[in-house]
Amino acid sequence: MSPLAVIGRLENDAHTRIIDVDTDFTMDEVVDACLAPAVGYQARHPKPGAKLRVRLTTDSDDAEPFPRSMTVADAKLRHFQQIDIYVSDE
Amino acid sequence: MALLERSAWYDIARDTNWTPKYVDADELFPPDQSDPYGIPVSEWEKFDEPYKVSYREYVSVQREKDAGAYSVKAALARSSYYEDADPAYLSMLKLHYGAIALSEYAACQSDARMTRFSKAPGMRNMATFGMLDELRHGQIQLYFPHQLVSLDRQFDWAHQAHHSKNWAAIAGRHALDDVMMTRDAVTTSIMLNFAFETGLTNIQMIGLSADAANMGDYTFSNLITSIQSDEARHAQIGTPVLEIMVKNGRKAEAQQAVDIAFWRIHRIFAILTGIPMDYWIPLEKRDRSFKEYMTEFVGEQFERQLLDLGLERPWYWDIFLEDVGVHHHCQAAATWAWRNTLWWNPTGNVGPRERAWLEEKYPGWNDTFGMYWDVMIENIRAGHPEKSEAIGMPAMCNMCQIPISNKGGTVWEARAHQLEHEGRLYSFCSTVCKWIFELEPDRYKTFNTIADRMYNGEISPNTPENILQYMGAGVISQGGRDAHDLAWVKAYDEVEAPRTPIAGT
C-alpha cells in the first residue's frame, strides 16, 4: 500500500479537489474519501442515499464505472489522475 | 531665445539608429531579445509614436500628476476614512496593492527591455517614458499602503506578496513572468502594451476608480486615475508594433501573442476586479456588474481595436465571453471558502438582496454558484461557522495556477482538462490554458503548482499548518477571515427559512 493523490470530480460540485487515497483503497473507499471534504462543506450529495460510483473522467462523460470492490492499484490510477464520482444507474 | 516647436525637431531627435562598426548588428540587437521575427530594421524605423512627448514635457506633466495624487492624499490624511471604512472595501485595497504594486516594477523591466533591445527608435523612445511611468506606479502604490500598515498589518502584503509563495501571488507572478518578463522586445510589447494594457487595464483602473469614488475614497480613486493616464499613453506602443508585424507577414505570430497574453491576464484580472465589483462593494454603491464592464470595455472596444488592426478575435472568444460570467463567481466562492490562505479578508456578502442582484445580472446564478453558497450559509445559520471554511485542497491549473472550478449544480461543468507530457499528467482549468501549454511545453513544464509542491516534498509534511506557513499566512500577517464576521448572513433571518435543508450530511 502507498499513498496517492487523485483529482476528484464530484457530481454537481463546482470544484475539482485533490483527494488523498491509498493504492489499497476500494472504489467505495475512494468515494468516501472524495465526499469527506466536500459534502456538508460546500457541496451536497448528488443523490442522497444512492451509492456513488467512480469512473475515469473523459470528454464525453461516458466511461464505464470501475467495479466497487476494485482497488486503486488494480484500476491503475496515477498521481493526479482525474476521476468522476457520480450517480450511476448501474 | 526662441524655441523650436516640438514638431520641428522631434523626428530628428529620436532618430537614434546607427550602423555599428565594432560589433555586428545581431550582437547589438540579438534576435532572441530584439526581434525573432526577422523584420528588416528599415521597417522598424517606420515606427511612429501615436502620442508624442518630449522629456521636458513628460517631466512637467508627471510632476503635476504626482503632486495631484499626493496632495489629495495629504488633504484627506486627517480624515478617519480608512479607520471607518467598510472592511470589505479595505480588502479590495489590500488585494489590489498586494497584486499590483510590485508588478509595476516588473513592468518597468519590461519597458526597459524594449528601451534597450527594440530596433525601432520610436519604440525605444516611448518605452523609456513607459519605464519611468512604471517606476512611478511602483513607488506610489507602495507608499500609499505603507501608511496603512499601522492600521492593519495585512497592508504589508503590498511589499511582501510578490516575494511570497502565497498561491495567489504565485498565480500572478506566473502570468506576469510569461507576459512581461521572459519574451523578446517585440512580443513583450504585443503582450504587455496591447493585450494587457490596451485590452484589460481599463477594466481594472476605470472600474476600480469608479467604485472607489462611489465609496468616498477619493485618495485611491485619484491615485488610480493618475496611473491610468500613464497607461493610456504607453499602452499605445503596441499598436504600431502590431501594424509593422501584420504588414511584414507576421500576422499569425502577432495573433498568437495577443491570444496567449489576453487570456493569461484575463484569468488574473477577473479575480482582482470581478470579485470586488460583484461581491464586496455594497449593493447601493455598485457602479455596474463586472460582466457589464467587460462587455463594454473589452467585448466592444478591444474587439474593435483588434479588427481595425487586421487581427482576428482570439479563437476562444466565445469561451472568453462565457468565462466573464463564470470564472470570478467560482473564485469568489473558492477564495471565501479557503479564506485562511489569503492576505485579505474577503466578505461573503451574498445575502438575499445581493443574490437577487446577482441573479438579475447573471441569470442562473442561484442554480449554479448559489448552490455552493447555500451549503455554507446553512452551516453558519445552524451554528457551525467552522464548516463554512473549506478543508483539503482544490486541484490547481498548471497554467494559471488558480483552482480548477466551473459551474456547479446540475449543469456540472467543473473539470480539469488533462494531458500527459513526458510521463507527467498536467491539469488545466480550461481548453485555453491547455492550448497555451501545448504551444510551448518546454516553457511551462517544470513549474509546480502549490498542489504539486505539497506532493514533491517542497512542503513537508503537507499538513494544513505547514501549507499556510509556506504561503506566508500567519508569518507576514494573519490569513484572511470574513471581513464582516459573517454579519451578512443575518439578513437571512429576516426572510424565509433556508430554501432547502442540507442533504447527505
TrEMBL record, chain A:
Pfam families: TmoB (PF06234). InterPro entries: TmoB-like_sf, Toluene_mOase_B. This is Toluene monooxygenase system protein B. It comes from Pseudonocardia xishanensis.
Automatic annotation (TrEMBL), chain B:
Signal peptide: none annotated. Coiled coil: none annotated. It comes from the Bacteria. Its EC number is 1.14.13.227. GO terms for molecular function: monooxygenase activity. Residues 413-446 form the YHS domain. Keywords: Monooxygenase, Oxidoreductase. It catalyses: propane + NADH + O2 + H(+) = propan-2-ol + NAD(+) + H2O. It is an enzyme of class 1 (oxidoreductase). This is propane 2-monooxygenase. The lineage of its organism: Bacteria, Bacillati, Actinomycetota, Actinomycetes, Pseudonocardiales.
